Amino acid sequence: xxxxxxxxxxxxxxxxxxxxxxxxxxxxxxxxxxxxxxxxxxxxxxxxxxxxxxxxxxxxxxxxxxxxxxxxxxxxxxxxxxxxxxxxxxxxxxxxxxxxxxxxxxxxxxxxxxxxxxxxxxxxxxxxxx
Length: 130
Prior knowledge:
mainly alpha, 59% helix, 0% strand, RNaseH_sf, Tc1-like transposase DDE domain-containing protein, Tc1-like_DDE_dom
């Protein structure tokens, strides 16, 4: 289905909140997202405020700084030889492949943020190796 603000908020409610609770418990964190219409909708902004979750201010068109792109790259590489026959098999394959991503891989990407930022500054906003 198309991801509108309501669908996105449902995903946040049922998947992000439990994952954040498991990862961070009562510790503070800042949520990162891009500026997709569902993400930047006023209703979504209100949802984050109502749940007390700060959102990182994000510049438009900044894939060089977004580690989620690297995670999707990992998923794509792991799925290179998968041949799902329909949408349901594709979804199941994506879910199973996503589940193989380790917390250590995520932490390495998070730890790479200072290097990413420095590379973008050095490149004056032009593309980087990230």
